[in-house]
Design a protein that fits this description.
Largest interface: A-B, 29 and 34 residues
Order of helices and strands of chain B: HHHEEHHHHHHHHHHH
Number of strands of chain A: 11
Distance between the termini of chain A: 67 Å
Structural class of chain A: alpha/beta
Oligomer: heterodimer
Distance between the termini of chain B: 51 Å
Helix content of chain B: over 70%
Number of helices of chain B: 14
Shape of chain A: elongated
Radius of gyration of chain A: 22 Å
Shape of chain B: globular
Largest sheet of chain B: 2 strands, antiparallel
Structural class of chain B: mainly alpha
Chain lengths: 266, 296
């Protein structure tokens, strides 16, 4: 009998707790959802924000840009995170640029090709140029590495470089920035694209249209492959959401952006 | 309570018996119901989009561009078949010869050491196989044969190794199940041991060996992690052994994280196709092993 009562209490407790998690988004709780490219930075902001604002909770979830925008539209979260521009009917949401991210075209460090025109990159990824020789490199077939359909990074690359042209079917497809970098690190004939903040010494970022991929060239607009990181909300953010956005846009928040390898908005 | 139980003609023990039987039945059916739920869910999520776009464009379409509403699964279907066939070409000869050596040409002691080791091979997680493939096999293929290294060949070799334990252990079992009198009779007629293996043991153990191959095939078709890591995942029908390839399982695993709307449904449709393929393979395996039981 005693045991049964204990079990009942436990059950009641579980029910109460879980309902608290689900429905009880109190005024002290902010939910962000969306792009997995922004997620790690949002986690960082949330951590610092919560340390200085005791009693407030910020919950950061992934799911991808499109899912985040949808969640924001339906009210499942107050702020959606998007690593691409809003399109079509998404445009009735308010978008705030919170940081920018460069897109680097990377090759193996041993590759003599130091820079390409954006048009050439486009031809490589559409499968029209298949050999490094055409681009002034060694006589090797190009290994083209791309990201999977639905990825925000691929979406940005498609928009900034490819336009309406398709990435050709034979391109090797990987599901993270890390794996793309890994392949390019080991294959002397590979070319791929990743977030500029993730370029390390084992790969080389190509100069595009004569502009090296660095903060300065992005600042003066000569390096063109830049995508915005957005927070989206229904109408202007209010209350806790506004507090958080203001924090992210403050000098402190933007300093964190720089620390983590992104480009601040100012 | 006691009265009704007695009226039904049961003592307490018999009543307990009935209760236990009922409880076991419920548990047993919960396992079956999981399969049912999965089937209903996958089919429910995956088939509407196939009807909307037509089965032909789904199964025979060669372009997979979900963002442009092009959902051709043909490259992935062919990819799965190529990779699986490659795995069998590598796994079957090695597996069968290993099984023959273990049952016919080695002492009990050697068998006692080697068989558990091979079974241990089945316990290695597929990520580890994939990792080994990426670190050792892929660079090797790239440097020796050219191409990106991530290829049909790499996937086939890795999967071929992965299905070895399945093929070996079931083949060993069915070779051992051949009655000793067959062996003795053959040797007595003056056949060599190899002739005995080739002309007596293989035919006698045929259905068991076929079942082992089909189970290995099922494993190869369903393997995901290792394939994603070494196959390169290009959604195109591979033109050579050295070209990258995408399988049905990789297609789902690769794109599920960001897929929404119709793209997500198309991934479920991929699951339906895979489900049908696996079902067919399992049915064949069951049919062959049933035939084996009927044999004298």
């Amino acid at each position: 009998m005693k045991r049964r009562r204990f079990a009942l209490c436990l059950l009641a407790l579980v029910v109460v707790l879980s309902s608290g998690c689900r429905g009880g988004r109190s005024r002290n709780e902010l939910t962000l959802a969306g792009s997995t490219s922004i997620q790690p930075f949002a986690d960082k902001w949330a951590e610092v924000f919560m340390a200085s604002h005791l009693g407030l909770g910020v919950d950061v979830q992934g799911g991808g840009s499109s899912a985040g925008i949808q969640a924001c539209k339906s009210g499942a979260c107050q702020i959606g995170m998007s690593s691409r521009e809003l399109k079509g009917e998404e445009k009735d949401l308010t978008a705030i640029v919170i940081a920018r991210d460069g897109l680097a075209i990377i090759v193996h460090p041993s590759n003599p090709v130091r820079g390409l025109k954006v048009a050439e990159v486009k031809q490589v990824f559409s499968g029209d140029i298949t050999d490094w020789k055409t681009l002034g490199g060694p006589d090797k077939r190009i290994t083209v590495v791309t990201r999977e359909e639905g990825s925000g990074t691929r979406g940005a690359f498609q928009e900034l470089v490819m336009g309406k042209t398709r990435i050709f079917r034979g391109a090797i497809t990987e599901d993270s920035n890390g794996t793309v970098r890994e392949i390019v690190t080991h294959d002397p004939a590979a070319i791929g694209f990743i977030s500029l903040g993730l370029v390390n010494s084992q790969v080389r970022a190509l100069a595009l249209d004569g502009a090296e991929a660095n903060d300065e060239n992005i600042g003066n607009g000569s390096y063109r492959l830049v995508r915005p990181f957005l927070f989206v909300s229904r109408g202007e953010p209010t209350g806790l959401a506004k507090q958080f956005v203001d924090f992210v846009l403050s000098d402190e928040g933007q300093a964190l952006v720089k620390e983590e390898g992104l480009l601040p908005i100012r | 309570m006691d009265g009704t139980a007695k009226k039904r003609g049961g003592t307490r023990l018999e009543r307990n018996d009935r209760l236990v039987r009922l409880a076991l039945l419920v548990v047993a059916f919960s396992a079956v119901s999981v399969l049912l739920v999965i089937t209903v869910f996958i089919v429910g999520q995956g088939t509407p989009i196939m009807f909307r776009y037509g089965f032909k464009s789904f199964l025979a379409g060669t372009s997979w561009y979900p963002s442009e509403k092009l959902f051709g699964l043909w490259p992935m279907i062919v990819g799965s078949l190529f990779v699986t066939a490659g795995a069998l070409v590598i796994g079957v000869p090695f597996g069968l010869s290993c099984a023959v050596v273990l049952t016919e040409f080695s002492s009990k002691r050697v068998r006692g050491i080697i068989k558990p080791i091979i079974e241990l091979l089945a316990g290695i997680p597929s990520v580890v196989y994939g990792f080994m493939g990426v670190i050792i096999l892929v660079p090797f293929i790239r440097n020796t044969f050219g191409g990106p290294g991530l290829s049909v060949l790499a996937a086939a070799i890795i999967l071929g190794v992965m299905i070895l334990p399945t093929i070996i252990s079931i083949s060993v079992d069915s070779l051992q199940a051949v009655p000793p009198s067959y062996r003795e009779g053959s040797i007595a007629l003056g056949a060599t041991r190899w002739q005995t293996v080739k002309m007596v043991l293989f035919p006698a153990a045929r259905s068991g060996i076929i079942a082992s191959i089909i189970l290995g095939m099922g494993r190869a078709v369903g393997e995901t992690m290792a394939t994603i890591m070494v196959a390169g995942n290009a959604a195109e029908v591979p033109r050579s052994l050295l070209a990258p390839v995408r399988t049905l399982t990789s297609n789902v695993a690769l794109e599920m994280s960001y897929a929404t709307g119709e793209h997500r449904e198309a991934l479920f449709a991929t699951g339906v196709v895979l489900f049908v393929i696996i079902m067919v393979l399992n049915t064949i395996a069951n049919a062959t092993s049933a035939k084996r039981r009927k044999q004298p």
